[in-house]
Each structure stands twice: as C-alpha cells, then as structure tokens.
Amino acid sequence: MTFDKRKVVYQIYPKSYKDTTGNGVGDLRGIIEKLPYLADLGIDMIWLNPFYPSPQRDNGYDISDYTAINPDFGTMDDFEEMVATAKTYNIDFMLDMVFNHCSTEHEWFQKALAGDPYYQDFFILRDTPTDWQSKFGGSAWSPFGNTGQYYLHLFDKTQADLNWRNPNVREELFKVVNFWRGKGVKGFRFDVINLIGKDEILIDCPVDDGKPAYTDKPIVHDYLKMLNQASFGQDDDSMTVGEMSSTTIENCLLYSAEDRHELSMTFNFHHLKVDYKDGQKWSLIPFDFETLKDLFHTWGEKMSKANGWSALFWNNHDQPRALNRFIDIKNFRNEGATMLAASIHLSRGTPYIYMGEEIGMLDPDFDSMDDYVDVESINAYQMMLEQGKTAEEALDIIKAKSRDNSRTPMQWDDSANAGFTTGTPWLKIGKSYQDINVEKEISGKIYPFYKELIRLRKEMPLIAEGSYRPAYRDSRQIYAFERELNGERLLVLNNFYGEVLTVDLASAYQNGQVLLSNYESDGLGKTITLKPYQTLAILAKG
Hints:
Low-confidence stretches: none
Structural class: alpha/beta
CATH class of the largest domain: Alpha Beta
Number of helices: 18
Mean pLDDT: 97
Number of strands: 20
Distance between the termini: 34 Å
CATH topology of the largest domain: TIM Barrel
Strand order of the largest sheet: 11-10-9-3-2-1-13-12
Number of domains: 3
Strand content: 15-25%
Shape: globular
Oligomer: single chain
Radius of gyration: 23 Å
C-alpha cells in the first residue's frame, strides 16, 4: 500500500483556530468556515489535535472517551458535516490517536479503580515503582487508589499508560480507529506510539530518566503491524504518521518501510533540540547550526537510501515558533519564513504546515506566568525557581520554550482578538496580531510562497519522490541538498544566516533554471551570492 507523496498536511489545534460561538474556544464549525482558505492554500489533509472529551489536564491528550466529541468543540453532526464539506474541496482529515495512555477519568481506569480485574489489566500496575521519571517531571508512578499498588504514567499523573500486552486493550484501540474510518477519516497520527512496547518485567533504569527501558522496543513493530492489518491497512488511500519520541533512524526505517506494513511515515524531533543546552529543554542558548545541518543530512540521506519516509516539519503544537528560534525576526521575518519553508517543502518527505506558519506567526511575547496555561510550562517554572533561578530568569526561559507559544489563537485579522473570537480567548492573543494576520499576509510574501511550494510538489515528481543527497556539507552557513529522479536534478540552497555569502556552482547548475527563490534572482554563473536567509532552488540543465 503506497500513499500519495505529493500531499501536504496542515495541522490545526482546534482550540485555537476559529471560535464561532463566542465562548473563547475554537470549534469544528470554525474549521468548516475556514475550509475555503485552506483550499486556496492548496493543502490535501488536515491533522486535528484531539477534540475528544477530556479533563484537559494536557490540552486534550488526556482522553476520557475516544469516540465522542468534546461539547466545547461541537457535536458529531458538526464533525460529519466538516468531513463531508472538506471532501468537496478534496481535503481529508487526519485524527490524533493517543494510544499510549488515556485519562484517569476514562471509564476503563475508573472501572479498574473500582476493583474490576478485567480493567485493571488495561493498565500497568506494580507493587514497587521503578526509578523512571515522568516526561512532565517527577516519578512516572503514582499510587493506584488505596490498593498499595502503583500505576505507570510516562506523562501527567492523570494520563495512565495502557497495557498493550493485553490483547483486549489492543482490540479496543483498533475499534477506535475503525470507528473514525467509518466516519470517512483517511489519516491517523499516532501520539508517542514508540513508547507502547514496555517490557513485561519492568526494572530500574537510571540512564536518561529511564527512556531506554520503554522506547522503541522491538515489540512496537509487532503491535503496529497488528494495528495496520486490523484497521487503516484495509484502505488504499490511508495516510498514517507515528510521533516517535527519542527515536533512531534504524527504527524509523522499519516503521515506515512500505513492505513492512506498519506506518506511512514518522515524526522525529532531534532537529528541534538543537537549542537545548546539554539536551535540556529549559535552557537558553543559540541554535547549533552544525548539529541541525548534520541531522537533516544524516536522516535525509539514510532514509532516502533505504526508502524510508519522514514527516517534515518546523512547527507544531508542542514547539515554540521556528521563526523565533532560528531567524533574526526583527530584520528578516519574511525571508527567514520562506527559507525555512523551502528547506523542508523541497526536501524528501511529507511536509506539515502548522496553523499560522503560512503567515509567519511569532511567539506571543507574554508578560507574566499568569498568561500561561500549559501544565508543562507551569511545572517547569516551579522547578527552575527551586533550582535557584530568579523569577525573571525562569520567565525568560518559559517565554522562549513554552508549548503555549504555538497554541495562541490563529491571527485572522487586526480586529479585537485577531478575529478569532467575539468572547474572551482561552489563551491570550499574540502581541503581533495587528501586523501579522491572514488578511494582510494573503497578499504578502509568505503565504503566496507557501502556495507555490505546495503547487511545485504536486506538479513535479522530482520534488515529491526524488532521492536526497547532501550538498555543500562543509558550509558553516548553508544547508543545501540535491534531489534526483530519472536523470532530473534539483539543487536547493538555504542560507541560515543574515549575512551575505558567495558560493561556487557546479557546471550543471551554472546554466540551470532558477525554479524558486525568495529574492529577485541575479542570474546564475560560476559563483553566486546568497543574500540573508535566501533560499534558491536550481534545476540542472542537461
């Protein structure tokens, strides 16, 4: 089963896209209202973050019912209308399947707590906890009621890990996928899916907070094959992606190999940790370009040679805006935004656009911790204070690294609340909305550039399916690569800095054709000058 490699996915965080009721929370009818906008952009599939019933301890990734709609977002009728309307624009939906864990308010956990042994085996219960640490801080174990046992939660204590070793759990989760397939859903994104293969006997693992004890275990591949066979693998036109936490190229090749029947592609996050000091997120250092470039080249080359497939992205609901991380936004926001876009849309893999990225949205620049709602950020702020940082130092780090940076409401126009809601938004609007909004950017520099990138991928097999080869590997300023298919070659040069740079061109490209640039082209020759944050794509002649 192959999927269409020309497709581009657009991610919507439903809570923050468009509110039609005035309650300050985005909803499904808001997405219906904006389908013409997305059709104009040219995307093929919308990935929706969770909209299911949830106590919202982790913004919906703590699901209490997998086959219903949270009333904040609308009704099942709204969902069905949204899917049907989107199909008239040739747009499909990708839903988030959070199968590593469920909310402690889910009926499975509640029945387990009430003493039902059938449901107790849905979770990972132990008499003695291991030393594993939660990804949100603290122990990954909490007391299981007053039983004297503990339950595993790799994330928040209200997110209990599910026991995939129990065939009844697998069967229930496969039913969830099939329920949404029955509603016309064609895409599925599996949240931290490489963490589901815990060992039967759990032991202490002091290395890296315990991650080696539960990450990318071989049995995960078996589970994914079962999931594929029981659900989406029965559809010729399905598209699936696994979010892989702290994964490896070797595993991602296996997860995404067509002949293994696991998933279409994988997300990895290594490139978004290049501004972590000593691997720690809650730190402030400039990004490491050499590491970033080497990661892109290593993954690009190895996935290409072994025919694996990656999901390519700069932004999502868990990351600060890439523009704030990698670009001099005061001087080069337009150039930086278009360069970052070209660096993945012209590469090998399926590009994902996160809402607002296509208009160059920035981090919100909040004034105080009172403006933040993300549980991870609030916990991290307290942790940093306990470690001896001043309130000001801790806030500066939160402002740079919080997940709320990307979760602020979509900026539609320069009216009150950026046209997102007539009420009070659940999360404050970013300060830039009067200058950066859809109404202005549709005729600006960034949005039309995204449209062109999407058009090129659809029209040129070389971009959709060509191989990947690193270029200018020794450059300390350029991230460059070549794509090749059936004798056609494309060179993509991306200047990651605000300084001008001169480079030599190989003869095949000296007489080539400029396919795309975010500056007016000066023509080609033996040497060319790349302007600040310039992207330049050249088709070889002959």
